[in-house]
TrEMBL record:
Record's protein name: ABC transporter ATP-binding protein
GO terms, molecular function: ATP binding
Keyword Electron transport: no
The entry's keywords: ATP-binding, Nucleotide-binding, Transport
CDD domains attached to this UniProt entry: ABC_NikE_OppD_transporters (cd03257)
Species classification: Bacteria, Bacillati, Bacillota, Bacilli, Bacillales
Organism: Alicyclobacillus fastidiosus
Database matches in Gene3D superfamilies: P-loop containing nucleotide triphosphate hydrolases
Domain ABC transporter, chain residue ranges per copy: 2-254
Amino acid sequence: MIELKDVTKRFNLKGSAAKKSKIFNAVNQINLTWRRGEFISVVGESGCGKSTLAKVIAGLTDASEGAISLDREPVHLRSQKERTKWAKTVQVVPQDPYAALNPVRKIRSSLADAFLYHKLVSRHELSHKMEELLEFVGLNARETLDKYPHQLSGGQRQRLVIARALSVNPDFLIADESVSMMDVSLRVEILDYLKRVSKERNLGLLFITHDFRVARYISITGKIAVMYLGHIVEFGQTDEILRNPMHPYTQSLISAVPLIAGRERRVEEVLPKSFEIGTLDERSIGCPFAARCPFAQADCLEQRPKLDSVTSYHQVACHYATARKMLVNE
Ligand SMILES: Nc1ncnc2c1ncn2[C@@H]1O[C@H](COP(=O)(O)OP(=O)(O)OP(=O)(O)O)[C@@H](O)[C@H]1O
Ligand code: SF4
Ligand SMILES: [Mg+2]
């Protein structure tokens, strides 16, 4: 089990002569528990911090504050040795598979690196292991290994980066917008594939997307975390979040999705006041959604709502979520 406790990642946007520099938290005090075998989708608009969160969890960038633990033991990523060990626990399937593969190296050599770097197989076992893994992700090894990345289709490249992530036999896999650039039929194929592989290997799967329909498809028996400007504003079982969203931001996203099959009743239609997502200054103290929220009150600008439990399987960060729900249901 991986646990994040108050994890924050801060960036300093250096300004020019005319513009002041700005410090902001791309990821802000995230608390999350993620178990082996558990599927969690992280949903939110572009720029809300999804990839930054993925990189912090995978140890590809350091958190500015907060702690990560594995099975209740603190995870320290101070040395290369500690990072290499962590990479065997958590792997990321990157957002852009083409950019993640070296264009001048054959697949054989890119894939071999992953195995050899982590000393997972001896040289004489290498070919056999690579073939086995490629077949496992549905690629014909003989046809694939001696090609360059540009000679593969989008779907084949996607499978390849999944294979590369699986080569170290991780316990947890993060897939960052892994199907966003694909057409619908391929998208379903890759999603089914990721689900199957994760189930077979009992992997924890953290699936990052901006599309609730994809989140539902991947983690129907799992959970959804909704992110807004670096914060998790709503979290809970997928079914519950889709049927009963309580945060105005989640409601605005879900009411904008034409039809989510399985949603038993219509959620309240919520239109944000503006469509601009903006950024949040590090010093801001109020609700991150206040500038766009049609229900904002004066205290929303002064007090940041905490992610509180509404039930044992649903948490929301909004001062007025419960009161509004009672009004709507009256
Ligand atoms: N290395 C960096 N330096 C400064 N700012 C950064 C850096 N990386 C990300 N950011 C900023 O942090 C915020 C979150 O970025 P991130 O890439 O995590 O968003 P995202 O939710 O993955 O977006 P998308 O859906 O477009 O992939 C953005 O405002 C982005 O510009
Ligand atoms: S706390 Fe206030 S501003 Fe934030 S989502 Fe709730 S009602 Fe809107
Ligand atoms: Mg991203």
